[in-house]
Amino acid sequence: MHVVVCGGGIVGLAAAYYLARREVEVTVCEAGSLGSGNTDRSAGGIRTQFSTPVNVKLSLASLEVWDDFEERFGVDIAHRRSGYLFLARTEETAANFREQVAMQNDLGVPSAYLSPAEAREHCPELRIEEFVGATYSPTDGFADPHLALQGFSQAAREAGGEIRTKTPVTGIEIEETGDPVTADVTVETPDETLDADVFVNAAGAWARRVGSLVGLDLPIAPRRRQVAVVAPETPVPDSVPLTIDLDTGSYFRPEREGQALVGGHFADEDPDVDPDGYDTGMDLDWAVTAVEHAGRTAGYFGPESGIVRGWAGLYAVTPDHHPIVERSRPGVVTAGGFSGHGFQHSPATGKLVTELCVDGEASLVDISRLSRERFDRGVPDDERNVA
Ligand SMILES: Cc1cc2nc3c(=O)[nH]c(=O)nc-3n(C[C@H](O)[C@H](O)[C@H](O)COP(=O)(O)OP(=O)(O)OC[C@H]3O[C@@H](n4cnc5c(N)ncnc54)[C@H](O)[C@@H]3O)c2cc1C
Question: Which of 317, 345, 367 finishes a domain?
Fold first, then answer.
């Protein structure tokens, strides 16, 4: 079996690694360089505290891999397990938190509902008067996305996978053979035409465009998101969790040497952008607002805080903030629309893509909830824990 994976981001490379491990001939076609999409622009958050069971299950299946990544892949991805702290300003959000913690605990996540005073034990400068409740899980944290991508790409190559950079997929022809899983697939690139049995769309914010090459209309929208590296007035200790004020969408986490990474989306408008032609720089106005929001969450970000640098990248957003992971038609697997959590869910996704290609169905996690047909059946439950 030959599988062509379109996209050399973390999702495509994780898929390539697990496919190669199953002795599948795999070729990754990446239009630019590895990670040049949005993986390198990620904040690197890894968490189990999601609001729907399927996202929690994707997290748990991925956490197994993140937890011993260095041992398996020989790359230290700077995985910090300082937890995630979600904060509620309203009773409605706090009630959702209590329900989510019960669901997460049923699935084996050791998250807990906390009072603001208890939350302050994790984040000493927390402005407890602003909040009514919180949740925390010690399983959560963050890692370096670029190092993780290197780990998957090296391991994929060592397992026999071929990775081609500067190789955009420009056309695809599919001839169905009657087999439900495979097809006669012809993948065009500027230099060569590749024959394959399965084509995997792992093109991130470009997934809708790539999907249109195989006759699919995928509801995956590229949306611009920014982060800033900040020198806070008071250094943020390494032990402080990634802290999210869910009612405003503002978040921060410690960065090296007392600095902090600050993010969030505060505009009412959230237009689709052209993934090949958007501003990848940080807007200063946005950064000032982001630091103000962070200052309303915790006392680290007083008026003497400085903005060091920042950047913008793209979330690939679906209407319910869950990815589409499915066999879209014989010979085509889609893994996209991660809505801001594709870095952390890449290990489970790589395994699921492999199962769809090799076994014909997924078994690691029940992914019936992740097929694009869910949108035809009505409005599915939204993932609420999105910043
Ligand atoms: C500011 C920001 C913060 C984030 N924070 C987090 C976080 O804390 N935790 C988390 O889990 N996620 C986070 N994310 C999301 C995360 O970055 C993405 O979900 C993840 O990187 C998606 O990986 P991917 O492999 O699907 O896409 P990408 O890394 O974008 O890779 C897709 C690749 O496909 C290639 N491609 C496109 N079209 C073609 C073509 N025709 N032919 C060949 N190649 C093609 C592109 O060049 C690109 O390299 C964040 C994102 C942003 C922007």
Answer: 317
Q: Provide the domain count of the chain.
A: 2
Run of H or E residues at 332: strand 332-336
Closest C-alpha to 282, from 244, 225, 339 = 225
Q: Are residues 192 and 276 in the same domain?
A: no
Q: What sign has the CA pseudo-torsion 278, 284, 288, 294?
A: positive
Cβ neighbours for 122, distance < 8 A, ≥ 6 positions apart:
83, 85, 136, 239, 240, 241
Pair 271, 160 in one domain: no
Looking at residue 264, its pLDDT comes to 97
The domain in which residue 274 lies consists of 84-138+221-317
Q: What is the pLDDT of residues 94-151, one digit of tens each?
A: 999 999 999 999 999 999 999 999 999 999 999 999 999 999 999 999 999 999 999 9
Of 38, 56, 220, 252, the residue with max ligand 1 atoms within 8 A of its CB, to mutate for a pocket test, comes to 38
pLDDT in tens, 154-189: 999 999 999 999 999 999 999 999 999 999 999 999
For residue 336, give the CATH number of its domain.
Answer: 3.50.50.60
Q: What residues flank ligand 1, with Cβ below 6 Å? A: 6-12, 29-32, 36-39, 41-45, 168-169, 202-206, 210, 225, 227, 313-315, 338, 340-344
Shared-domain flag, residues 359 and 248:
no
